[in-house]
Specification:
By secondary structure, the protein is an alpha/beta fold. It has 16 helices and eight strands. The relative contact order is 0.11.
Length: about 425
Amino acid sequence: MALVEVHGQHDDRGLLDAKGHRAVLDAYAGNEAALARTAAAWREFQQADKALVAAKDAIALAEADAEYVQHSLKELAELGPEAGEDEALDQKRRLMQAAERVRGDVAKAAHAVGLEGAEGLLTDAHRWLQDAAETPEIGMEEPIEAMGRVLIELDELQNGIEAALGRLDVNPFELEQVEERLFALRALARKHKVLPDELPALWAGFQAKSQVLDESGSRLADLSAQREQAHVSYRATADALRVKRQKAAGRLDKAMRAELAPLKMENAVFATVLEQGEEGPSGRDVVTFQVATNPGAPAGAIDKIASGGELSRFLLALKVCLTTRSSGLTLIFDEIDRGVGGATADAVGRRLSAVSDGAQVLVVTHSPQVAAMGIGHFVVSKSVRAGVTRTAVEAIAQNQRRDEIARMLAGDVISDAARAAAQALLDNAPVAAR
């Protein structure tokens, strides 16, 4: 909650910019929650709209490449590449090529340790040792046991060699198939400028593009329906916000009439006009403040009709309407009386004094008529010391106020007539200000 409202001397320029009128009306109406709902609905609508546009762009891109996508899909489907297949085929090809070179040597080794080689000789030697063991005195137990172990190791050796021969049993037709598959993978990878292991991902990407085309009709229909629903929801919240603005506009116009009368603008007309504009996060309303300052004169835009002094008073009335809805505020007005003088300045001062009944009001002014209405009086002065500008604020006692107001009337040389005029202003001020 705001505790201090500051109204600067150039705030009336904001009244000349119609772009800010809607924000003023919303502040007066307390439309924060409705604005938040409208902004949220607008974001949802924008997201749905962007999703539809993105889908249309993707479909258009897919349609442009449709022939290429379908051709590539056919090639990839016929080949059916798998992850890691290139390395596996390359290793298998190397093994099969090596098999042709070493199979003869391995086969010779198998023959050497077989029945016609080491196995046969060792078996005969084992039998001969067993025959000799019939004569216990010779002591053949250990040699026979060692020979048994050798025969076991020889059996494992034979099994290993036979397994190796099985792996080296290469079918020339199979080697040709492996090479054809490997070369086909690498050729397709070069064509698409990817690595062979990236072909499965490429295939999936083409499948996704094809799916976009296959589902384009239903997808666009769904996204269009979502966009339309989001738009309907947005318009509903924007319309609800408009109703609040229309009601608040009537209240504001009535409140402004009541505020303008004490400012000697009892014949002025202030009207808040709502028109339909472009859609956006704050709704689709264009709000303008129109005024007529003379009886019988047509109303028009405030920047075309009101003079500088009238703008100040319109601003004061508007600020009072906006701030008196809250209690306990401190209101600071910086030269709100700019451009007015005489009886009009007196009226502005009296209105500010009345506003102070419900709030603390601080006014920066050069007008003696306004200054005389205050309960307290402070003098703001500037001086230069050692090349540094200093600003001082000094409270003026009640018995000093007459001379200060006389100075505001007459300047540095205060005459008796100026003192008399200042006293008259103080005597005519509200009781609280004396």
